[in-house]
Write a structure and sequence with these properties.
The protein has 195 residues and is α/β, with parallel strands linked by helices. It has one domain. Helix 2 packs parallel to helix 3. The model has no long low-confidence stretch (mean pLDDT 90).
Length: 195
């Protein structure tokens, strides 16, 4: 079944956005912004994006590249943050979207850091570096939703994370996984405006 998808990306990663739109066999109704909105007013631009693109989308595909970190002093993350906030918001004229983070090749080794044996539980855990040095808080806080365990399983995360290569091989599977999070109990723990 087709899902209404919005692709959230930094300008530096437009080639990946275009690749998804033009080359992948994706069963989606593309709600992405393809032409810049002709205005210098950020509030007006965001309102148009929310009203015309995000309000009825059901999955936001968030491309995680080298220019999208929360603490990047040389990159403005305003639009990415506000797009994800609008995607996470569930209210009048806007239903919450599933969030699918796609790790681009430039960030693969920074985010996926192998496995370790946990000193608390003795199990093997995959080390995932999702935080202010790799993406915006709107994604990281809803990927690592706070709890008192030593690790997270998939049911304890709202955001879905996948590498670019995995996504390319099976885009519809991951879009559907993000779509289904909208009705899971974890959706009740979403933080729209993290601090």
């Amino acid at each position: 079944m087709s899902r209404k998808c919005y692709i959230s990306f930094k300008t530096e990663n437009i080639d990946y956005k275009n690749y998804i739109q033009d080359n992948l066999d994706v069963d989606m109704i593309d709600k992405s912004l393809n032409e810049p909105i002709d205005s210098d007013n950020q509030d007006y631009i965001m309102r148009k994006i929310r009203e015309d693109y995000l309000s009825d989308s059901t999955v936001t595909i968030h491309l995680i590249g080298a220019h999208g970190a929360e603490n990047s002093w040389f990159q403005d993350q305003t639009f990415i943050k506000r797009e994800l906030q609008a995607s996470l918001y569930d209210g009048k004229d806007n239903s919450r979207s599933g969030i699918l983070g796609v790790v681009l090749p430039s960030m693969h080794n920074t985010i996926y850091q192998g496995q370790t044996t946990c000193l608390t539980c003795g199990c093997n855990h995959t080390l995932i570096n999702i935080g202010d040095n790799t993406t915006v808080k709107e994604f990281s806080v809803n990927y690592f939703i706070p709890h008192d365990k030593c690790a997270w399983n998939e049911d304890e995360r709202y955001c879905v994370l996948v590498s670019w290569d995995q996504f390319k091989n099976s885009p519809n599977e991951y879009i559907e996984q993000a779509f289904e999070k909208r009705t899971n109990s974890i959706a009740n723990q979403v933080t729209v405006y993290p601090k």
